[in-house]
UniProtKB/TrEMBL annotation:
SMART domains: WD40 (SM00320). Gene3D superfamilies: YVTN repeat-like/Quinoprotein amine dehydrogenase. Residues 798-897 form the Gem-associated protein 5 TPR domain. WD repeats lie at residues 56-98, 370-412, 543-585, 586-628, 629-663. The keyword Repeat applies. It holds the Pfam family TPR_GEMI5. Signal peptide: none annotated. Keywords: Repeat, WD repeat. This is Gem-associated protein 5 TPR domain-containing protein. Residues 305-336, 774-795 are annotated as: Disordered.
C-alpha cells in the first residue's frame, strides 16, 4: 500500500549555538547537533555532493555534545540534558548503546584513544568526575582525582596517542593536566595579568597531531595560545587583528601539518594560521554571521583535478601564487605568498544556526544551509496571495519567510522578539505578518521593509498564543492570550471587541465564509463562537464536549457551518456550529493535538499534528484515519496548506524542522480520470454533496471551479485541461517549469510563458540570452551604489557575478573591464590579448600607475579565454558545476566564445565558429546535469533539462523511470510523436487501477494510450491481461469482456476446451485464463513453463514472447490452499526471471532480494517436485556472484565470452534491455529525504527507509517506494510469497 501523503521537502534545523562541541566528523562524514537531533551528512559519489542521510533523534532534551569514534567510522556518541549518553551507528542508522538516568547532565564527551580501548567512551559533568563507559560490556568506572576542581569544567581532551594523558579546560581559563599512569594533576593558568579574569573559559583545545606535549588552546578573553603541557609554558601567543575579535573554535588541518583554522565569533571570517607565526596567514570572509563551531574533515587527498595541466603540484603552487585572488580574501595580502592554501574541507556552524561545508582550496561553499531555525518552530503559514512563500515562527525569537520552491529563507526578522508562538498573514498582497509573542504582545512585521510597523500591547506581559488576521476584512486582527481574553482590533489600534473567557484563551480563527464569525478555544475545554455583527460580548454559540483545553480551532473553508477543534484530551471534534452539536470525534492521537488544517478542495479531508510526533490525515465523514506519519522527531505544532496549492502541506515541529508534504498520491486518481476523458462533472462537485458519506472523491474548491470556467471559455481544450489539472494536483513550481518547456517545444513564444519561466531551467535557445541579461542586471543594480563595509562587499560580489557571466557568454572585454573596477589588474591583463593587442596595452599602461596588486588562479577563466572550451567544460563537470558547464558549452556552440589562438595569428577579439561545433559537448552536459538532478531525487528538473534541448523522448522516459506516470501521459499528449515510455506508463497505471478495483478506469486508460491494447492478430494484449487478472465478480468480468469485444467468460471456457482438443495449448491456456475455469489455465501455464525451462538454451525474452499470458492468473486463485504447489512453482519462476531482469535493467538494490526469494521458492518447489527444472545450485551460484556489488555492473555489461560459466549463463538468460525507460534504478521524487523515525526498516534489504515507505499486503512487511517499484517492474508478485500482486505505481 502506497502512502497517501508523501514528504517532498525538508528544511533541516540549524546547528544550536549554546554548547561548544556541536560538530564532529570522521573521514568524509560529518554531523552537527540541533537542539534535539543530530544531522548526519555523507558524501554521495553518484550525486557528487554531500547529502543529509539520517537524523538521530534519541534525546528528549537539549544535546550538549557530540564525539565521533576514533577507530570506527560508523559510531558517534552524544550526551544531553536528559541525562542520557547515546551511541549511534551511522550505517545501521540506529542507537546501539544507551546510558541513561544519570544524576547529572554530561557537558563533555570523548572516545578514549587506542585500538584496544576503541569501545570506551568518556564523559563528565561540570564538576566531574571523568566517567569511563565500556559501550560493549556496559562496565562503568571513574578516573581518580578528577573531582574537586576550583572552577567548572568546560571541556576535556585525551591525547590522540596516549590515553593516559588528558587535560581539562575550566571556566577561569586554567588547564588541569593529567597523566593517569602517575595519578598526578597539574594546573596551567593564564598569565598573571589575567588571573583575575574569572569569566575567561577555555572554549576550545586540541592536541598538536605532530607532538606529544603541545596543545592549541582558545579562551574567551585571552585568545589563542600554543602551550607546552609538559613544561607548563606558553610557546606562542597568536594575535588577532583586533581586541574586539575572539574565537570560540579551532581545528588543525590534517593535509597541512602545522596549519590550523579559526573562525571569528563576531563575524564570519575564517582565518588560516601557521604555528610558525603569530599572525594569520590569510583571512577569508565567508559569511556575515559569526562562527560557533568548525571542523576540518580529515580526508588527506591530493586534489589532482585542480592542478594546472602539464605542471607538477609544486610548480603549480609556485608559479600561480602571484595570480591568487578571490572575492572574500583580505585586501592586505602580500603580492606573493610563502605558503599554499591547503586542500581542506571545513564544516562551519554559525551563530545564526547556519551550517555549511567550505572548500578552503577553491574558496567556495560545497553547500551552505544559511538560516535554519535553532529551536522549536511553533507555527507556519503560507502567504495569502502567494503559495510560494511560507512563514515560520520559532522559540528562537525569529520569524523567517521561506521560498517553498527552493526551501531557502528569503526574509528573516532582524530583532529577537523572544518566543514567538503564532503568525498570521495579512490578506491579499499587503506583505505583512502579525506575530504573537510570549512577553512582547502582538507586532506586525512588513517583510518588504524588513521592519516592525505596528505593536499592540493590550495583553500586557501575558503570552499571546494565537493571532488571526481576518482574510475577508484586512482591518480586523484577533489575538488570544494567557490573560483570558480574545482581543479584536483595527490596524490603527482601535479595539473593536474584547471577548473575556473564564480561563486562558489559546486558539482563534475567522470563518472564510461568514466574515463576522470568530471561533475561540479555551483552557476550560469550551469552544465559543463570537459574532461581531451582533452588539454583544456574549458568545453567539457555545460548543461543549472536550475534557481538556482546546488549543486550536479551524473553520472549514468550503462548508460554512463546520468547525474542527483540537484538544489536550487527544481528540479532534467536528462540529455543526449552528446546532451546537458534535458530528464526529476523531481519535487516534496519543498526546495533545496541536496543528489542524482543512483541505481547500476536498471538504471532508482534515490533517492534524500532535505532541505524539504524528501527522494524521482524516476523512471526517467516517472518522477514519486515512494515514498516520511519524517522520517528525518531536511535537508537531504548525500545520498549513493554501487555496491555490491545496494538495501541498507544511508542518513545523519541536524538532526545529520544516517539512513539505504532497497529497498527489491520493489525488492522482482524479488526474487519471481526466486522462481517461471523464466529464469534468465527475471530477468537480459541490461541497455539501462531497460531505455525504458515500460520495466519491471530488474537488469542490474555488480553484477547481475557476478551472472549469476557464476551460469552458477555451472550448474544453485538452492540452490546457491536462496542464491545469496536473499543476493543481502536483502543486509544484518545478512542474510549471516543465510545462513551459513543453510549450516551447510546441512552438509557443517566450512571451506567452508564465512569469516564473526565467527562474527555472531555461530552454537551450534562451539560455545565453537570459544569462546575458542577468549579467547586465547585476551590473546596473550596483551602478549607483558606493560605500564601504558590507555594502561595498555586496557591490563587489554582484560585479564579480556579472563578470563571471560575461566570461561564460564570451564577452571577454566586458569581463576585463569589470575586473579592473574590482582592482584585479593582473587577471585582466592576462585575459586582455583575447580581445585585442591594443586593449591589452591600454590596460598595462593604466596598471603601471596602480599600486594595488591582487592575485587569482582560475582554470575556467583562462581555458575559455584561449578557446579551450572542452577543457573548461571538463574541469567544471569534474567540480560538479554542470549548470555552468552547460552555459559555456552552449555559448561555444552559438559561436560566442573565442577560438584557440594560433601562432602568428592576429588577436582581433572576433568570435568564430569552433570548427566541428560543440553540439556533442552540449548534449553531454545536458545528460550529466539531468542525471545529477535525477539521482538527487528531483525528476521534474531532470526531465526539464531534456525538454530544454527538445529531447522529449528522453524526458518522457525519465519521468516513467521515476514513477511520474500520469505526468508522463499528460506531457506526451501535448507533444507530437510516439514515445516508447507511454505504453509502459499506461500499463503500470492500469495495474494501479486494478489494485483498487477500478477496472472501468483502467480500460479507458489503456484504450486511450496503449495502441496495442487490443490486437487483431489474436496476440495477447494488455486488456486481455487485465481481464485475466480481474478479481471482480462474474457479472463485472462479463461486462468488461463485452466492453472490449471479448467473448464472455463462459464462451472463453468453451473455446479453450476446443483449442485444447485441437492441440493448441498456448491459445487454450489464454482462453482458460479469461474464463471461469482459471484453475485449468493455471495448470497448463505451469506445464508449459516447465517444458520451456527444460531447454538448456532458454532465455527470459524467449519464454515471455511465446507465453505472454503465463503469469496472468488471479491472485485469489493463487492464494487458495489447493493451489499451493502450482503457486510455489509460478512464484519461483517469476522471482528468478525477476532477478535476471533486475540485473539487466540495473536495479541492483533488488537483485539480491529477488535471488534470495527465488532460492527459497525453488527449494520449496524441489521439496514436492524433484524434477523442477530450475536448479537450486544454479540460483545459489548466481546469488553468491551478485553478493559482490563491484561485480554487478560487469555481469551484464561485458561481452558474452568474458567471465566464468555462471556469468555467461546469467548473460545468456537475462539478455539485453530494449526499453530505455526501464533501464537504470528508480529514484522517486524526494526519496532521499530522511525522517526522524526508526519505524520503517526495509523487509528485503534491512536498511532504514528514506522517503516514502510501501507496506505489503500483510501490513507488517515494508519496502522503500524505490525498492517496491523496481521489484514490481521485474516481478509482479509480492515478496511475502502469498501470491498477492505488488502494485506501488
Amino acid at each position: 500500500m502506497s502512502s497517501l501523503m508523501q514528504q517532498v521537502g525538508l528544511v533541516p534545523a540549524g546547528c544550536q549555538p549554546w554548547n561548544l562541541n556541536m560538530v564532529a566528523s570522521c573521514g568524509p562524514k560529518f554531523a552537527y547537533c540541533a537542539t534535539l537531533a543530530v544531522y548526519i551528512y555523507e558524501h554521495d559519489s553518484e550525486c557528487g555532493r554531500y547529502k543529509l542521510t539520517s537524523i538521530n533523534a534519541t534525546h528528549s532534551k537539549t544535546i550538549n555534545c557530540i564525539s565521533w569514534n576514533l577507530y570506527n567510522p560508523d559510531l558517534f556518541a552524544t550526551a544531553a540534558s536528559d541525562g542520557k549518553v547515546c551511541v549511534w551507528n551511522v550505517k545501521l542508522r540506529k542507537s546501539v548503546a544507551l546510558r541513561e538516568k544519570l544524576s547529572y547532565s554530561p557537558n563533555c564527551i570523548g572516545w578514549v584513544p587506542g585500538k584496544n580501548r576503541g569501545d570506551i567512551l568518556a564523559f563528565c559533568g561540570k564538576q566531574g568526575p571523568l566517567t569511563l563507559w565500556n559501550t560493549v560490556n556496559n562496565n562503568i568506572s571513574t578516573v581518580d582525582n578528577t573531582v574537586g576542581f576550583d572552577y567548572n569544567i568546560t571541556l576535556f581532551r585525551f591525547h590522540h596517542t596516549d590515553p593516559t594523558k588528558f587535560i581539562f579546560g575550566h571556566y577561569d581559563g586554567s588547564l588541569s593536566i593529567f597523566n593517569a599512569g602517575k595519578k598526578t594533576r597539574n594546573c596551567l593558568r593564564p598569565n598573571a595579568e589575567t588571573n583575575a579574569l574569572n569569566d575567561n573559559p577555555v572554549l576550545a583545545a586540541i592536541w598538536d597531531p605532530l607532538s606529544t606535549d603541545y596543545l592549541l588552546v582558545a579562551r574567551k578573553l585571552t585568545g589563542i595560545q600554543l602551550v607546552d603541557v609538559k613544561a607548563r609554558s606558553v610557546i606562542t601567543n597568536f594575535t588577532l587583528p583586533s581586541k574586539m575579535i575572539s574565537t570560540h573554535t579551532l581545528s588543525w588541518i590534517d593535509s597541512a601539518p602545522g596549519m590550523f583554522l579559526t573562525g571569528d565569533h563576531e563575524t564570519g571570517i575564517l582565518r588560516l594560521w601557521s604555528v610558525s607565526q603569530s599572525s594569520p596567514l590569510e583571512s577569508i570572509n565567508v559569511k556575515a554571521t559569526g562562527f560557533h563551531c568548525l571542523n576540518v574533515l580529515d580526508t588527506i587527498q591530493k586534489d589532482e583535478e585542480n592542478e594546472v595541466p602539464g605542471t607538477s603540484s609544486t610548480a603549480s603552487s609556485t608559479s600561480n601564487d602571484k595570480l591568487r585572488n578571490r572575492f572574500g580574501s583580505s585586501s592586505s595580502q602580500a603580492r606573493t605568498k610563502s605558503y599554499s592554501v591547503p586542500p581542506a574541507k571545513v564544516v562551519c556552524a554559525f551563530a545564526d544556526g547556519g551550517v555549511g561545508l567550505y572548500n578552503l582550496h577553491l574558496k567556495k561553499w560545497e553547500f551552505l544551509r544559511e538560516q535554519g531555525h535553532i529551536e522549536t518552530i511553533f507555527d507556519c503559514k503560507f502567504k495569502a496571495d502567494d503559495s510560494s512563500l511560507l512563514a515560520t515562527a520559532s522559540f528562537d525569537g525569529t520569524v523567517k519567510v521561506w521560498s517553498s520552491n527552493t526551501l531557502k529563507a528569503v526574509h528573516t526578522s532582524t530583532d529577537n522578539e523572544g518566543v514567538i508562538y503564532s503568525i498570521s498573514w495579512a490578506p491579499g498582497n499587503l506583505n505583512c505578518l502579525a506575530c504573537g509573542t510570549r512577553r512582547k504582545g502582538v507586532f506586525v512585521w512588513d517583510i518588504e521593509k524588513s521592519k516592525i510597523i505596528r505593536r499592540f500591547k493590550e495583553h500586557g506581559m501575558h503570552a499571546v498564543y494565537c493571532v488571526a488576521w481576518n482574510q475577508r476584512d484586512s482591518h480586523r486582527l484577533a489575538s488570544c492570550s494567557d490573560d483570558s481574553t480574545c482581543v479584536v482590533r483595527r490596524m490603527d489600534g482601535q479595539i473593536v471587541r474584547t471577548y473575556k473567557h473564564p480561563l486562558p484563551a489559546f486558539g482563534c480563527d475567522w470563518s472564510l465564509i461568514e466574515k463576522d464569525l470568530l471561533a475561540t478555544g479555551c483552557k476550560d475545554g469550551v469552544v465559543r463562537i463570537w459574532n461581531l455583527a451582533l452588539e454583544q460580548n456574549e458568545p453567539y454559540r457555545v460548543l461543549k464536549g472536550h475534557d481538556s483545553k482546546v488549543f486550536h480551532v479551524r473553520w472549514n473553508p468550503l462548508v460554512g457551518n463546520v468547525l474542527c477543534t483540537g484538544s489536550d484530551d487527544r481528540s479532534i471534534r467536528v462540529w455543526a456550529v449552528e446546532s451546537e452539536t458534535c458530528t464526529m470525534i476523531l481519535t487516534g492521537h496519543t498526546a495533545p493535538v496541536r496543528g489542524l488544517a482543512w483541505n481547500y478542495e476536498v471538504p471532508f479531508l482534515l490533517a492534524s499534528g500532535s505532541w505524539d510526533s504524528s501527522l494524521r490525515l482524516w476523512d471526517v465523514r467516517s472518522g477514519k484515519c486515512l494515514q498516520a506519519i511519524k517522520d517528525h522527531g518531536a511535537d508537531i505544532y504548525g500545520l498549513t496548506t493554501h487555496p491555490t496549492s491545496p494538495f501541498m502541506y507544511a508542518t513545523s515541529s519541536r524538532d526545529s524542522t520544516l517539512r513539505l508534504w504532497s497529497l498527489a498520491p491520493m489525488t492522482e486518481k482524479l488526474l487519471l480520470k481526466v486522462l481517461a476523458g471523464d466529464s469534468c462533472s465527475d471530477i468537480v462537485g459541490l461541497p455539501d454533496k462531497c460531505m455525504e458519506k458515500e460520495a466519491p472523491l471530488q474537488l469542490a474548491g474555488s480553484v477547481s471551479r475557476s478551472l472549469l470556467a476557464q476551460l469552458q471559455e477555451k472550448n474544453n481544450s485538452v492540452p490546457l485541461k491536462l496542464r491545469w489539472f496536473s499543476e493543481l494536483f502536483f502543486s509544484s513550481r518545478r512542474l510549471e517549469n516543465l510545462w513551459n518547456l513543453v510549450c516551447i517545444g510546441r512552438g509557443q513564444r517566450e512571451s506567452s510563458l508564465s512569469k516564473s519561466y526565467k527562474d527555472g531551467i531555461l530552454h537551450i535557445k534562451h539560455l545565453t540570452k537570459h544569462k546575458m541579461a542577468e549579467a547586465q542586471e547585476a551590473e546596473h543594480s550596483q551602478a549607483h551604489k558606493s560605500g564601504v563595509g558590507s555594502g561595498s562587499r555586496q557591490r563587489d560580489k554582484s560585479l564579480m557575478q556579472a563578470a563571471d557571466l560575461h566570461l561564460k557568454l564570451g564577452n571577454i572585454k566586458r569581463h576585463c573591464e569589470i575586473l579592473v573596477q574590482l582592482g584585479q589588474w593582473e587577471k585582466a591583463i592576462a585575459l586582455a590579448p583575447a580581445v585585442s593587442k591594443h586593449f591589452w596595452s591600454q590596460l598595462v599602461e593604466k596598471y603601471v600607475s596602480v599600486l594595488k596588486h591582487e592575485n587569482d588562479q582560475d582554470t575556467v577563466t583562462f581555458n575559455v579565454a584561449i578557446g579551450r572550451v572542452r577543457e573548461a567544460v571538463k574541469f567544471m563537470t569534474s567540480q560538479s558545476n554542470f549548470q555552468e558547464a552547460l552555459l559555456v558549452a552552449q555559448s561555444a556552440e552559438e559561436g560566442n566564445t573565442p577560438v584557440p589562438v594560433q601562432e602568428g595569428s592576429s588577436m582581433n577579439g572576433q568570435n568564430h565558429d569552433h570548427g566541428d561545433g560543440c553540439n556533442d559537448l552540449v548534449e553531454s552536459c545536458c545528460n550529466e546535469l539531468s542525471e545529477r538532478h535525477y539521482h538527487n531525487a528531483d525528476p521534474y528538473s531532470a526531465a526539464a533539462v531534456h525538454f530544454a534541448r527538445d529531447n522529449a523522448q528522453a524526458a518522457i522516459n525519465l519521468l516513467v523511470k521515476s514513477n511520474k506516470l500520469a505526468l508522463a501521459l499528460c506531457l506526451s499528449r501535448n507533444l507530437k510523436g510516439n514515445f516508447e515510455g507511454v505504453t509502459r506508463a499506461v500499463q503500470m497505471l492500469a495495474r494501479q487501477c486494478e489494485s483498487t478495483n477500478e477496472y472501468d478506469l483502467a480500460v479507458k486508460l489503456l484504450k486511450n494510450f496503449d495502441p496495442q491494447c487490443l490486437t487483431r492478430d489474436g496476440a495477447w494484449s494488455s486488456l486481455q491481461g487485465l481481464c485475466a487478472r480481474c478479481e471482480a465478480d462474474e457479472h463485472i468480468r462479463a461486462k468488461i469482456h463485452q466492453d472490449i469485444g471479448l467473448p464472455s467468460p463462459a464462451d472463453c471456457a468453451e473455446k479453450a476446451a476446443s483449442l485444447k482438443s485441437a492441440g493448441d495449448y498456448v491459445k487454450a491456456m489464454q482462453f482458460y485464463l479469461l474464463s471461469n475455469q482459471q484453475q485449468t489455465g493455471l495448470e497448463i501455464s505451469i506445464d508449459m513453463l516447465l517444458k520451456k525451462l527444460e531447454d538448456a538454451n532458454w532465455t527470459v525474452d524467449g519464454v515471455m514472447k511465446q507465453l505472454p499470458a503465463v503469469f496472468s492468473v488471479r491472485s485469489s486463485l493463487l492464494k487458495q490452499q489447493s493451489s499451493k504447489q502450482p503457486r510455489t512453482k509460478m512464484l519461483a519462476i517469476s522471482a528468478y526471471f525477476g532477478a535476471l531482469l533486475a540485473l539487466r535493467r540495473g536495479y541492483f538494490a533488488v537483485v539480491k532480494p529477488l535471488y534470495q526469494h527465488a532460492k527459497s521458492m525453488v527449494d520449496l518447489s524441489h521439496s514436492f517436485d524433484p524434477d523442477f527444472p530450475l536448479l537450486s545450485s544454479h540460483v545459489q551460484e548466481e546469488l553468491e556472484l551478485c553478493l559482490d556489488p563491484s561485480r554487478l555492473h560487469g555481469v551484464i555489461e561485458t561481452s558474452n565470452d568474458v567471465g566464468n560459466d555462471v556469468m555467461k549463463r546469467i548473460r545468456h538468460r537475462a539478455g539485453r534491455e530494449a526499453e530505455s525507460c526501464m533501464c537504470g534504478k528508480t529514484v522517486t521524487d524526494a526519496s532521499d529525504l530522511p525522517s526522524h523515525s526508526d519505524d520503517h526498516i526495509s523487509t528485503i534489504s534491512g536498511t532504514k527507509i528514506s522517503g516514502a515507505p510501501f507496506f505489503l499486503e500483510d501490513q507488517r512487511s515494508v519496502l522503500s517506494l524505490n525498492e517496491a517499484i523496481m521489484w514490481a517492474k521485474c516481478n509482479e508478485f509480492s515478496p511475502t510469497g502469498s501470491g498477492e500482486r505488488l502494485c506501488p505505481f
